[in-house]
Target: fructose-bisphosphate aldolase
Amino acid sequence: MKMTDTVRQILRNYEGENPGVKAKLCSMLMQGKLAGTGKMIILPVDQGFEHGPARTFAPNPAGYDPHYHYQLAIDAGLNAYAAPLGQLEAGADTFAGQIPTILKLNSANSLMSDTAGKNQAITGSVDDALRLGCAAIGFTIYPGSDMALDMFEEIVEMRREAAACGIATVIWSYPRGEAISKSGETAIDIAAYAAQIAALIGAHVIKIKLSTDHLELPEAKKVYEEQSIDIATQAARVRHCMEASFNGRRIVVFSGGAKKGTDSVYDDARAIRDGGGNGSIIGRNSFQRSREDALEMLQNLVDIYLGKA
Amino acid sequence: MKMTDTVRQILRNYEGENPGVKAKLCSMLMQGKLAGTGKMIILPVDQGFEHGPARTFAPNPAGYDPHYHYQLAIDAGLNAYAAPLGQLEAGADTFAGQIPTILKLNSANSLMSDTAGKNQAITGSVDDALRLGCAAIGFTIYPGSDMALDMFEEIVEMRREAAACGIATVIWSYPRGEAISKSGETAIDIAAYAAQIAALIGAHVIKIKLSTDHLELPEAKKVYEEQSIDIATQAARVRHCMEASFNGRRIVVFSGGAKKGTDSVYDDARAIRDGGGNGSIIGRNSFQRSREDALEMLQNLVDIYLGKA
Amino acid sequence: MKMTDTVRQILRNYEGENPGVKAKLCSMLMQGKLAGTGKMIILPVDQGFEHGPARTFAPNPAGYDPHYHYQLAIDAGLNAYAAPLGQLEAGADTFAGQIPTILKLNSANSLMSDTAGKNQAITGSVDDALRLGCAAIGFTIYPGSDMALDMFEEIVEMRREAAACGIATVIWSYPRGEAISKSGETAIDIAAYAAQIAALIGAHVIKIKLSTDHLELPEAKKVYEEQSIDIATQAARVRHCMEASFNGRRIVVFSGGAKKGTDSVYDDARAIRDGGGNGSIIGRNSFQRSREDALEMLQNLVDIYLGKA
Amino acid sequence: MKMTDTVRQILRNYEGENPGVKAKLCSMLMQGKLAGTGKMIILPVDQGFEHGPARTFAPNPAGYDPHYHYQLAIDAGLNAYAAPLGQLEAGADTFAGQIPTILKLNSANSLMSDTAGKNQAITGSVDDALRLGCAAIGFTIYPGSDMALDMFEEIVEMRREAAACGIATVIWSYPRGEAISKSGETAIDIAAYAAQIAALIGAHVIKIKLSTDHLELPEAKKVYEEQSIDIATQAARVRHCMEASFNGRRIVVFSGGAKKGTDSVYDDARAIRDGGGNGSIIGRNSFQRSREDALEMLQNLVDIYLGKA
Amino acid sequence: MKMTDTVRQILRNYEGENPGVKAKLCSMLMQGKLAGTGKMIILPVDQGFEHGPARTFAPNPAGYDPHYHYQLAIDAGLNAYAAPLGQLEAGADTFAGQIPTILKLNSANSLMSDTAGKNQAITGSVDDALRLGCAAIGFTIYPGSDMALDMFEEIVEMRREAAACGIATVIWSYPRGEAISKSGETAIDIAAYAAQIAALIGAHVIKIKLSTDHLELPEAKKVYEEQSIDIATQAARVRHCMEASFNGRRIVVFSGGAKKGTDSVYDDARAIRDGGGNGSIIGRNSFQRSREDALEMLQNLVDIYLGKA
Model:
């Protein structure tokens, strides 16, 4: 399939990057029902690691089988499927070449004491990504954690290694930790800051959460008020986060969190679209529904990003 | 001996893996009295490290000699023998080629203060496993420990190195540490979670403990109750752990703990069998009995797995 | 453009260095409106990392776009442009060869708790600097921090690697941390010490802050008083810092801090010039003004360094 | 000199080992007055590091000179001489080929605060051992210390490197640290455990202290009493430690500690001999006596091991 | 210049060492006014790092310029000049081949909080020493610090690397830290211990401080008294430190500390000479005087070591 001008324009923004990485970004942008539009929907399945298997898959037990998610992403016409090592490996041969995959290289879990700090374990490598034919590596950073500097350094090194092999890098930039309050984790100033950091350390695709109009840092609050930065609506906040991502020179996708009603999911997508974001990364809201419901909901999301809904 | 269809089907689940690793998994699955059935009994002897020599071997002093265990595993027709470096080396030449061996790469000991944290020392390497002709490396992780992320990262790296050399990886996934209560160590939600983590970080064979119907994590408890997950019997709990192991796409063996009566050992095995587990890993219950008693008990276990008892 | 005698004399001071590094220093000294004078003005844009995007760019939103800063530095006839990895990459191709760039290899951020310590994350590498065609690497050290020894060791190693590839090293020597009071961070004894440390660990270009006449360390205070060291004026303090930089054998540029009135900026520059310093590194005072105002102000700074204002 | 059957039988126990390592073990077993008997006396001189030079050498100042100890070991007909890097180097050329040497790779010192933890510095390498023509490397572990896991990992790695070069490994297994009481350091259950750990992590020669009949660990105490393990005499305790050393498949030498009367030294040696131990490692009791006295005492020890005294 | 018998005898003590290292030791011993005598005077200039530039150079501002010290060492006919990386580099070309240089590889600074611990930063490498044509590397260890084990390990590794390239190693052994009182830092038992440690970890040249007759460690005190070790005079203490340095098989030079009257400097030198020490390492007492005074004082020191004063 021939690259569209929209995609060509997006790739042009990765000025420092080699053709190999651009080809991988292209493969994700030219995949599925949103191919060529510059919009993306990604299916991530790492919640079994983060929350445990029962909390993740019991609502729709078909999801215990790693094959289920590959098939769902393919049948729904999504752009990419992201998961940790074992999860990807369990279907790597059956579904080879049918959908771009993102190897999630680090993961948290719910079996850690508070004193252990906010951090994730590195559970995969660039070599694994190459061996499994992945389009990208995925990595979570926790801006605000006392471990943040280490996490930045880890992904910077793995990104370099990956790019040298023609593999793209997706950074999950999730504020969390000692320096941030609970409501600060989704504050708009923090969200924009998280996007900026991901861009600065070299993310090709940035994944952040949708935010609230809360302002966490006093020094930032002052500036938002003095400069009358528009953060009143979700669309406005998405737009501000795009500014913070090199004024839109980087692909940014937004996640919606725990399972909720479809109307709420659709509202999120419209805000992302209207604010100029590149799309959704949507896990529990996909696979914790029945396959039938999930396919219907994902089709509606596609229609929203196509401007039809 | 020709591979059976049952074994072929099991190996097919390791989609990302190379023929070398599959050959080693095959060598264990096609060994001994359970050859070809997809069931396994493994003899592990690392308790001298974990509890000291007298507590481990004094009940049956013949066990002080490393040769004893090789011979026991061979004569009982088991699938594999697992031990730390020195223990394996002490019989590596005499018993070469007679039974697949698993080099246990890390070990805890009972001479550590509480402040030292829950961790194990790495006491062997993939090079050692190659040099000694081992079929697999073994590694313990402690989900729930403040050292867990480090342990995950260690085995992920060694697994990668081992697989590249055609050596399989067995992960002992033993919940323990700051984030877990004593009864939580054997809670079913934690056991399933431990199996899931081992699968996600790339275990070819997962070793977990049999569990109780206790539910440790409040958020998990809610889901188990809402979704009415069946955890009433040991067999049901084994079945749930198999679900958590990629819906049975990974080999899972269960351990029984300290020495106890044979009836109890047999009950465990029947539950493992009925729940769809792949078998037992049974140390102290084997070698702390006299050789004669152990051989009889192990024969009975074989019969249980063969469906004859 | 032919090297001037002034520049030749400066380069002669780098006795241990190879021609590759000297060529890069030359490229910066022979660039822009101050070419050949031995004076420099550098534009640094890493405040988005340090303070977040809104605090940094909202006063002049054009700055959200990384291209803006390249263009500003070129149009103002500056000597070099310094920024972190992502920021440089976003314009690396468009502006290749038009202005020497300095890849800032480490960065702090405002999302760190007090217990996390004073440190920065390494977010780039010498390989990145080579790949992006940079003239130099930049690195911040925090003399006075409990992490200072680590930071010294990091840049010493990266400097060695960079120099071996013919890339120069700029060290931001910013006193900060457990051993220093707030007013000590800009005390003259500390500033001179910071310059000395940067010189001793191998900086080719030293960046320090302008200082006050406060004396922080009791043992140093005694010496300043006994020896009647002149620290009464900003120019005298600049002169003292040049002494501490191998008696002027190293290039030293001074930064002015947060945005302030242009008169104050000009006063600083005159003091730097009169004290024998090599120039200014001026970020927020450049890009937080409108492009028009910034260009006017930078022209006036050039005139000051040319002795015309 | 032709290898005796006794030595051949001992070497046969190192089943996993290459001929290079066996040759080095052979060189020590076939050296001096006990050559071929399977018994050994080793002279270790690392106390200058551990206690300082005056406490170590002032009682017999000839010992300040490193040549003294080489000559003593040679003239007394001992099996090997063990010392840290500088100490060995100072006579390496003069005495080359005259006695097998053991390069002690780590050392403690008496200038450490309690908060620094129980640990040793690594002060030599396998490359040094090769360069100096050593028969073995020596390494101390502290089972019971919070640093024990690190120490295990260090020697495991160095042992692997050494064995690959045909150099044997001697492990000093000295219980010490946060998990052990003062009397526990010489308790028999701990001594046997220390021997077991050394064997499991791959020691070719194990060095432990003679023990008391104290039992430190409650769980172990129970087993010793239930199983009526004989620990009443020193010989019985030596025998038990040999059991814990793979039932005698590993060479074990015993140390006697600070300087004491010769009768006591002889009693120790008879207990080691009668319990089936392989010999003595005897430092301060050798070199803190005059050369004449030391030679006489060492001859008597030889006679004891030969069964003549 | 032909090597003297005295020097040949000294070099013979380095039995484990290669000709490259011996040649470098020879180059220092055969340099300047003490050439061939086995005595040495070394000029060290790392106090700018340790105490800051003003405290170090303001008393004689000519010293701000790194060239000053090269020239002073050459004109005074000293044996070697030691300084950190930047300081050496700043004159490396101008003075190449005129005097042996020692690259000081680690340095402390006065901007560290108490909680940061007693340690130094590594600010140079063996590669730097090679590139700059140095005769030796210099490294400080702090016996008594909680960081001491790390420091020992660092220099052991760098010494090995340096020796393999034919570069000698000078160890500054300076007791300091949590395990030692202030007066203990110069106690004779500690000084001798510090010399012994430096010798054991492989120093070719040992640098220690002159000591007092204070005895710090109770266990050592007992031995000094029992054995009546002569520590009454500075010369006796120097002699004892030479004993602790392999009975004189290692070169030992002594430092005198902060600036003081010349008589006191001469007394120190006579004690070093009379106690059998190899010479002085003398920094602040040299360069904090006017050049004229320094040259006169250094000539007098030469005369003392030549036995003429």
